[in-house]
Amino acid sequence: MLRLVGLRKTFGTVVAVDGLSLEIRRGEVFGLLGPNGAGKTTTISLAIGQLRPDAGTVTLDGAGSPADPHVRRCIGVAPQALALYDELSGEENLRFFGRLYGLGGSTLRQRVARLLDFVGLTERRRDRVATYSGGMKRRLNFAVALVHEPVLILLDEPTAGVDPQSRNAIFEFVQTLKSEGRTVVYTTHYMEEAQRLCDRVAIMDHGRLLALDAVTGLLGRADRPTVVVVERAAGEERIETADPKAELVRALDQPDVLGVRVERPDLESVFLTLTGRRLRD
Amino acid sequence: MSAILTLAVKDLRLLLRDRVGFFFTFFFPLLYSVFFGILFSGTSKGPSAIPVAIVNEDRTPASDEFVSSLRKTSSLALDLVDSRDAAVDLVRRGVRSAYVVIPPGFGDASQRLFWGAPMRLEIGTDPGQAMTAGMIEGLVTARAFERMQRLFTDAQAMRDNARRSLEAVRSSTGLSGLQRTLLETLLTSVEALPDMFAAQKSAADTQPDGTTQPAFGGWRPVEITTSQVTRPAAAGRPRYPSSSFAICFPQGIIWGVMACAATFAASLLVERTRGTLPRLTVAPFARWHILAGKAAACFFTTAGLIVALLFVARLGFGVRPASLPLLLVAILCVTVAIVGLMMVLSVLGKTEQAVSGISWALIVVLAMLGGGMLPLAFMPPWMQTLSDVSLVKWAILALEGAIWRGFSPAEMTLPCGVLLSVGVVGFAVGAGVFRWSEQR
Hints:
The complex is a heterodimer of chains A (281) and B (440). The model of chain A has no long low-confidence stretch (mean pLDDT 87). The relative contact order of chain A is 0.15. Chain A has 281 residues and is an alpha/beta fold. In chain A, a hairpin with a 2-residue loop joins strand 8 and strand 9. Chain A is globular. Helix content of chain A is 34%, strand content 29%. A four-stranded mixed beta sheet of chain B has the order 2-1-3-4, with helices on both faces. Chain A binds chain B through residues 11, 45, 48-52, 66, 69-70, 72-73, 75, 77, 79, 81-88, 92, 96-97, 99-102, 128, 144, and chain B through 2-3, 6-7, 10, 13-14, 17-18, 274-276, 278-286, 439-440.
């Protein structure tokens, strides 16, 4: 679907993206995971033709380079910074961006109505965006990316600064898009989001690709084993094991056990294994 | 084209939603024009008269006649007061700009020819109004000379004055023998002079072109004619500003359109800082469309502002353009220049605050240099030369040329050419810097 080959981008002496190559498959939710400053947003900007790479190429299957304005018609972007006009209403924002993509008439009207319903803003559609909460703005920002029904949707930190309710709503939107067969690129520095939503995840740091695999595959790269934690009145016992199921059964047979839980390796521990640092350091 | 229009309409809608911005864009220039128009014209009934207190201590027919002649001077608003002290007090308190005292003896002096004390007048002025003082002195002197002139142009008055002066010389005791002889000879000749000219009257009265000369052979001690330097009036066109509003509205328009440039320049930065610009750059059109949309919004707003203000000037204050086609050309050129200025301003800073600050600093300098604050005529020569670099000068000249200066199309070429050049170069520079900064 989208192919990045040997991408490099520098800003002065800072190397933002360094020789990045990856391919995003049609219909998948692809995660770009990394700490702040890892180069995720620059990668997105290069992928949508907003920035020109110093080296490398970006190609959208069957269309060409996103540097070509016509190719960008296939792409929808929800930037990390809210890209909305506060003085316009939610409906006017959607109409404006829809018109930029050549929509009009009843098609635009219907699509705007559907999207407002999709993101739960129908009742507030005529209110100025300046009066919206952060979560509502984030949802509208998301809706704007979909107004022209793109086949490839890039969501750059879509849950940044939103309340848990809106965050869950955004998760549901992404899952809906996936069920519709759309391709989604999702950047985040929250490993639980990547783990929950993404089919495959690319882990980035300092502009470089550290690992790319399905979530289960990445978890297998963690050098931290699964831990079964057994809680007793005297305290907790942590048991590292390659067979947590057997260890659980054994623990539950013991009379003084108050509780048992399993700590599996997560993407945080994978990142720790790969870089020696935590994701949010 | 559709995308450009969509972008432009969005910017116009945003402008309408920003009530403060809308007020300063559309209503402030109108208030400016009306306020200064009224200030300079006194509701367009001609130039304001200078308030002057006059004291007639002489109280003779001659002094009364002099006061009457001053009253007829439209540039002076005369207030006859009883005493010198009252007049001085009025000037000191700033109620009047000056006072004129006609001291005793004015009437007698006005009857004498070639000898004795002259007519005396005393003028007191407010030291804070040096320019006004000069004007008053000139106006009062002119009225006094008119009176002197009548003595030489009215044959009977001259004969009577010469006779009275001759009698006074003969009865005077303060003159030497030689002085008395010379004055008697001169005054006798002056008394006879009108009769000598009367003999030639029939020959002299009729000129070859059929006009008649005034009495006394047409001779005058001095004749001053004043005129306003304007183009000959074409049918239905004004020869000079119909009122001070014809001057103030172009200046108000310039302030308004400069505000437009500053507003739209800042709005481009707002797009960048609020994140909407990156979203626009990934929309399916070339980057220059974004700039073209911004330029189109600025163009429509500027042109709309000029038209709206001129409409108010026409309906409310009777300002009629000398040439409607040339006015449309001037509006187009001013608008293009403002778009160019907006583009340059928009790339001069990296934040909205920086761009706004730089914009207004630059606008004030351009206005000062270009006559937007102070008429160019009041500036020293080197400043007048320097004003050529200000688009304000050329914008005002283009608008005035079409409104009341009666410029021909050829004369409009220079200001319009400069304005178009500013527009094109400004757009190119702004677009180049914008493109470069977006790719960094």
